[in-house]
């Protein structure tokens, strides 16, 4: 989610206004992901007497719920980094994460170089 208050500046540094807009965006993502997890983990109504069909539905819901929980954890970690004043710096090399990337993925943990290294290592 890109917040509309974020301008198209080319500067890579985050301004106080950028941080405020990113904080708002991350809070919105948190609310969305919390609701998504709630919906995905809610027990479906028991209308099908076939236990195999019920098991299949549960399996189909498990993967998206796990993915939503992982994204929610990333979002909450980004909020902690914001509160601690560590937001916007790479977890590996501690260099600033490019402003443009944070505008697209506000919960990003790695700079472009470290992201590439991690992708190659997979």
Automatic annotation (TrEMBL):
Domain of life of the organism encoding this protein: Bacteria
Record domain Zinc finger DksA/TraR C4-type: where: 85-119
UniProt-listed InterPro entries: Znf_DskA_TraR (IPR000962)
dksA C4-type zinc finger locations on the chain: 90-114
Entry keyword set: Metal-binding, Zinc, Zinc-finger
Pfam families to which the protein is assigned, alphabetical: zf-dskA_traR (PF01258)
Region (Disordered): 33-65
Any GO MF annotation of the entry: zinc ion binding
Coiled-coil residues: none
Keyword flag Metal-binding: yes
Keyword Zinc: yes
Name used for this protein in its record: Zinc finger DksA/TraR C4-type domain-containing protein
């Amino acid at each position: 989610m890109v917040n509309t208050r974020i301008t198209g500046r080319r500067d890579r540094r985050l301004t106080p206004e950028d941080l405020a807009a990113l904080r708002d965006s991350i809070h919105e993502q948190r609310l969305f992901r919390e609701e998504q997890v709630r919906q995905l983990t809610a027990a479906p109504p028991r209308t099908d007497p076939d236990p195999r069909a019920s098991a299949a539905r549960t399996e189909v819901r498990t993967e998206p719920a796990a993915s939503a929980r992982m994204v929610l954890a990333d979002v909450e970690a980004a909020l902690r980094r914001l509160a601690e004043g560590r937001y916007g710096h790479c977890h590996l090399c501690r260099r600033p994460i490019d402003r443009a990337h944070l505008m697209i993925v506000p919960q990003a943990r790695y700079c472009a170089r470290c992201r590439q290294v991690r992708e190659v290592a997979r």
